[in-house]
Write a structure and sequence with these properties.
about 425 residues; alpha/beta; Rossmann fold; Dihydrodipicolinate Reductase, domain 2; 2 domains; six-stranded parallel beta sheet; 14 helices
């Protein structure tokens, strides 16, 4: 049986583009208080102006695909706290998008308030691709201003941030704005086919879900003589949990999102597990862990298991396996999409570029006036990963209510950001000693 969900021809993926352009995966911009700017605009065939907020590799790739998604889209404004990142992104995008790059000098914004200036510049759509810590305030500002949004994952680093995102998502729905998430696996045709069948009952009652995200190390930027502590943290945001949420939130959240998806986005009731830092022990790696293992329990007795690690010279695995009363669904990302048991099935349909499809569907929804809103599930999937971090850091069994209502805020207040800020990096967590807040 074949599944054909779209006729769009795949184009090079975000990571392929980043590799070819030589842009490293780092994006950054900081927050100012969100304010209201205006109302939603209706679009038919008029040009759509895009603003890029966060000009690292992730943002550069997303901008390239936004420009590919609609014939009448231009990049109109760019913002970042680092001028070199913005100029590298601008040069790379000029090489592949040419006359679709309409960013005048006055629409290149550098600084802590760059994201607000992009929003105010007259754009119709904003791409939010900074480090995750800044996503809640950026999203709130964009929605307040009546902008359609592509919002990279994860959408927050702590529970208060998740609550901000949920409020912004509700406002976006009221304003009939499109809000598309960077949880790209939900835009992958094979995944949609497999999980759609599972949700339709192909394997019976779900009893267990296992997810693995095992891989190697990430990038690191050596400190330069003229960098302040804040500059160093921002250049290496991945290794500071107040900026990234830890790697279980920044990267492995994809796996937890797929677990949530196949469970109908129903939240577990409890979580327990462990985590630690065995290999990534040098001070240069900030305060994040290098492995987590967490069990989630649902109110019907089903269990979800998540295993993730980032350790050099270890085996890689990226999978979701769902075990039910009448069969199993096996997803090994990029290789195997299969249902076993009573309703045997193997996917042999179209393969798409899921990164491109995110933007294709976003811009189509803007054109046809039928907005997409991924807000609620992108927030709760992010919360699953934050919950996993809480469990790993503390070594405690934590309920959904406890996690969701946590008052722990990892980063500084929005009015405290400056290049001389010496934000106190929390000590590396120790299970059994680190307290749940």
């Amino acid at each position: 049986m074949k599944d054909h969900t779209s006729t769009h021809s795949p184009t090079p993926g975000r990571r392929d583009f980043i590799k070819k352009s030589g842009i490293a995966i780092i994006g950054s911009s900081l927050t100012y208080p969100a304010i209201s700017f205006g109302a939603t605009t209706a679009y038919k065939d008029s040009p759509l102006k895009v603003g890029l907020i966060g000009c690292g590799g992730r943002g550069t790739g997303a901008a390239a695909q936004a420009l590919e998604a609609d014939p009448n889209v231009v990049l109109y404004a760019m913002g970042d706290v680092f001028e070199d990142r913005l100029e590298e992104a601008h040069s790379a995008l000029l090489k592949i998008a040419g006359d679709k790059i309409k960013v005048d000098k006055q629409n290149k914004f550098i600084g802590f308030d760059a994201y607000l200036k992009v929003i105010e510049s007259g754009v119709d759509v904003v791409l939010l691709t900074t480090p995750p810590a800044f996503r809640p305030d950026h999203l709130t500002a964009a929605v307040n201003a009546g902008k359609h949004v592509f919002c990279e994952k994860p959408v927050a680093v702590d529970a208060p941030g998740v609550h901000k995102v949920l409020a912004a998502a509700k406002m976006a729905k009221e304003k009939k704005l499109s809000l598309v998430s960077g949880f790209c696996f939900r835009y992958d045709y094979p995944n949609r086919a497999v999980y759609g069948r599972v949700l339709d009952g192909a394997i019976g009652d779900i009893r267990t879900v296992t997810t693995f995200r095992h891989g190697g190390e990430a990038w690191y930027k050596e400190r330069q003589p003229d960098w302040t502590d804040m500059t160093y943290n921002m250049r290496n945001w991945y290794y500071y949990n107040w900026l990234s949420g830890d790697f279980v939130v920044e990267q492995a959240v994809h796996s937890l999102d797929m677990m949530s998806w196949v469970m109908g986005d129903k939240m577990p009731i409890s979580a327990t597990g462990t985590g630690g830092r065995q290999v990534r022990v040098d001070k240069k790696y900030g305060n994040i862990f290098d492995h987590f293992a967490v069990e989630f329990e649902y109110d019907n007795g089903a269990k979800g298991y998540h295993f993730t690690r980032q350790q050099s010279d270890t085996s890689h695995k990226n999978s979701v396996e769902v075990f039910g009363s009448e069969g199993s669904a096996i997803v090994h990302i990029g290789r195997r999409y299969e249902i076993t048991g009573k309703n045997k099935w193997t996917y042999d349909g179209e393969r798409n570029n899921m990164f491109q499809t995110e933007h294709d569907e976003l811009f189509a929804s803007i054109r046809n006036g039928n907005p997409i809103n991924n807000g609620e599930w992108m927030a709760t999937s992010t919360m699953l990963a934050i919950w996993a971090r809480m469990v790993g850091y503390t070594g405690q069994t934590i309920s959904w209510e406890q996690a969701f209502n946590s008052q722990e805020s990892l980063g500084p207040k929005v009015d405290e950001y400056n290049w001389d800020l010496k934000w106190p990096t929390q000590p590396v967590a120790v299970p059994g000693k680190t307290k749940f807040i």
